[in-house]
Design a protein that fits this description.
heterodimer, A: mainly beta, 7-stranded mixed β-sheet, 4-stranded antiparallel β-sheet, 48% strand, B: mainly beta
Amino acid sequence: EAGVVQSPRYKIIEKKQPVAFWCNPISGHNTLYWYRQNLGQGPELLIRYENEEAVDDSQLPKDRFSAERLKGVDSTLKIQPAELGDSAVYLCASSFKEGDRNGYTFGSGTRLTVV
Amino acid sequence: GQNIDQPTEMTATEGAIVQINCTYQTSGFNGLFWYQQHAGEAPTFLSYNVLDGLEEKGRFSSFLSRSKGYSYLLLKELQMKDSASYLCAVRDRNTNAGKSTFGDGTTLTVKP
């Protein structure tokens, strides 16, 4: 099994430009998460999906961030326009359900650098 | 909300035992996870505790005391490859349908 697949692996953009990240979760995992991780810190949740429904987007900066999970499988996270402070690693994770005692499976992440 | 505290850094010797502590404050505790994260890589799941006591998995064990808001991860027979960041994450049933919040991690360096 491929695990959680994310692309691109790295992205460098100028500030005010748009950027998009893609995630394909583990087959059969209904719950999908987008996390942001700054250097030396733990991951912070941006948005959580149960199938195609966003059930927790309270920490998503909605003025510039958007996400979608069409058909309840793949997901895309977009930033428009990007700011210098958005430089971070964006991690996608999935689980069979929230509350799964096996925890989350994370993808390799996208390292975003905004210059 | 949740406050999760872990030591920032620890150093140990190959072959030794190390204990990484995690304290938390939460209003509706519903499980604690430990993850391992090597530099530049994604976190990987290590263990889960929801009841008090010790869970053992090979060289790694995790302990939980809900009354004290305390957990530790115990690594035995340390190997060089155990050098990584160890993240404690707590799930709270009272926050947005039970999301997990991560601590900032403990960077463990294993020396020969």
